[in-house]
Structure to design on (158 residues):
């Protein structure tokens, strides 16, 4: 008798989740884009359409050595790109350049010893593949000017 009661309770406990799930309808899964509002905004009074916004981050660390001395330089870059219309795009970059070793060191210097911020922005106009116009402002540290400018990285002859 006791064995029969235990078996019946065991079967009932196993069947409860099955009965509960049978009445559920399948729901569409929400994506992370929906959660942050990246789905197209149909409100005509909205100032910012998140489906046209792209953001990227990067971190670069470099080591330089000369005359027996070495230094490390780190750069965190946040880039935001917003397509205003089909041929018009706005780019905004913020770079934080610092020496990573000073963040961990015991010497406490002035706040400027812990890095500098270099903003950049540009407005790109590309109505066709054969025409490209960019107006902008780019700031880079003096020691990186000849090595890390957009002119060295970009292919100007599309």
């Amino acid at each position: 008798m006791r064995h029969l009661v235990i078996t019946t309770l065991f079967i009932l406990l196993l069947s409860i989740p099955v009965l509960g799930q049978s009445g559920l309808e399948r729901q569409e899964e929400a994506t992370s884009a929906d959660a942050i509002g990246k789905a197209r905004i149909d409100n005509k009074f909205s100032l910012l359409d998140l489906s046209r916004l792209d953001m990227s981050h990067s971190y670069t660390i470099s080591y330089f050595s000369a005359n027996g001395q070495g230094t490390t330089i780190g750069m965190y870059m946040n880039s935001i790109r917003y397509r205003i219309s089909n041929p018009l795009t706005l780019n905004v970059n913020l770079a934080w350049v610092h020496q990573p070793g000073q963040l961990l060191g015991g010497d406490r210097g002035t706040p400027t010893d812990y890095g500098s911020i270099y903003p950049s922005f540009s407005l790109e106009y590309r109505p066709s593949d054969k025409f490209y116009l960019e107006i902008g402002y780019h700031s880079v540290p003096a020691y990186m000017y000849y090595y890390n400018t957009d002119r060295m990285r970009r292919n100007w002859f599309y």
